[in-house]
# Entry
Amino acid sequence: MNTLDGRILVTGGAGFIGSALVWALNRRGHGDIVVTDFLGTDEKWRNLVPLRFADYVEADVFRSTLRQHPEAFGRFSTVLHLGACSATTEKNAAYLIDNNFAYTKELATWALAQGARFIYASSAATYGDGAQGMDDKDDNLARLRPLNMYGYSKHLFDLHAQRMGWLSRIVGVKYFNVFGPNEDHKRDMRSLVNKAYEQILATGRVQLFKSHKPEFKDGEQQRDFLYVKDAVEMTLHFAEHAPAAGGLYNLGSGQANTWLTLTRAIFTALGREPNIEFIDMPGGLRGKYQYFTRADVAKLHATGFAKVLTPLADAVRDYVQNHLVPGKKLGE
# Structure
């Protein structure tokens, strides 16, 4: 059963991945979508302008209303919970606990009570430095040691879902390094592609952090980069084609590429020769920096996901040439 054939709730729906999910749903012909988010004072409202949805509700209003009247917004067939503070540098632990942990508990309880498919964003940040591995086996959870409070707030809900016995009925997706259109509002949390594009326009060069580990040369720290258009296909797979799958799933390309490879692809997309400068990593980041990430996606493929992902160079070219240069959001 395709659980997208009904009303759909997208929390964080004005954000980066959330708005990309609404875009992907629109492309499938779905418009009976309720979007919640905190629009605040930034420009992420622009992500919503080209998209089709039935209603928008501010997230705090939605949450407080549900607490008092769980039936207030009617029934949904699918809940895509992307609403969270995604800043890995956020220091307010109480805010992260409330927004990323407590709210997710409330929403999952409500969704399960009404029989909705619940798919939520966990994070690859739960893996910390990767010393305990980056496999998405549910029995690995207690060994993980996140490096920042953001990762820990996500990890707490994964543990809670496991304790409650929910992981057989819900899906937590662990996004690796997602990049692509609709991330402009994320400021320091934007991808290197977005930041580098601005640097190249302003200065003609890109600054990368030096390595502070001898086993990695400057610029050869590695990440699993995933294009947002592929990330949303993976996410919706659990509602369209694997509605019975449960547990935690890595969403990544399954490949580790260096920052140099990514940066050179940006220059190529702009028709320029690479001009890269290495700068010292801020001291506050050094103990929390991941030098290598690569998603083990065998568990995802075991659910039947077989779509061919966009090669990194092609993804960078599409993002730069079709979105950054013309300044176009998804759906424009």
Remarks:
- The radius of gyration is 19 Å.
- The chain has a mean pLDDT of 95.
- Residues 93-113 form the longest helix (21 residues).
- The longest strand covers residues 33-37.
